[in-house]
């Protein structure tokens, strides 16, 4: 059974803060699919994950390059943005399978554009607008994903279902 965590956030700083918590929960690696409309906060969430690893530079969506690699705190993180991907088979040209090693952190925006070539995600985070804030639904798809959600839930007032 998949676990589900629902969080409501107000403002950009809250999204970054939750991203930091997600980053701490991803210390052992994992694949996270990020879903949401343009401007929902997917890249802001990625910035929080990177901040949790000590990265202090600018974080922008790799819309044109498809993937941006980061190495920090002894971890390798790949931030994918597949929004402009014309055909999922284009991912073969960048060696997509090589990025998803077990201890890497892979954050994938617009994963539906790479359907059929991406591995199963450990965690799916769907971001939607909720008034001036955002609602996040994080759903596990693997045992590792359930462990990530459990780590997120340990010190929070939200509940994993």
Average pLDDT metric:
90
Multimeric state = single chain
Helix content: 25-40%
CATH superfamily: P-loop containing nucleotide triphosphate hydrolases
Distance between the termini: 10 Å
Q: In which order are the strands of the major sheet placed?
A: 1-7-6-2-5-4-3
Q: Beta-strand percentage?
A: 25-35%
What count of helical segments does DSSP give? 5
Uncertain stretches of 5 or more adjacent residues = 157-161
Order of helices and strands: EHEHEEHHEEEH
Tally of separate domains: 1
Please give the CATH class.
Alpha Beta
What kind of sheet is the major sheet?
7 strands, mixed
- Write the CATH fold name: Rossmann fold
Radius of gyration over C-alpha positions, nearest whole angstrom: 15 Å
Shape: globular
The class by helix and strand makeup works out as: alpha/beta
Jot down its keywords.
disordered C terminus, 5 helices
What does this structure look like?
- This protein has 161 residues and is an alpha/beta fold.
- The protein has a seven-stranded mixed sheet with strand order 1-7-6-2-5-4-3.
- It is globular and about 40 Å long.
- The C terminus is likely disordered.
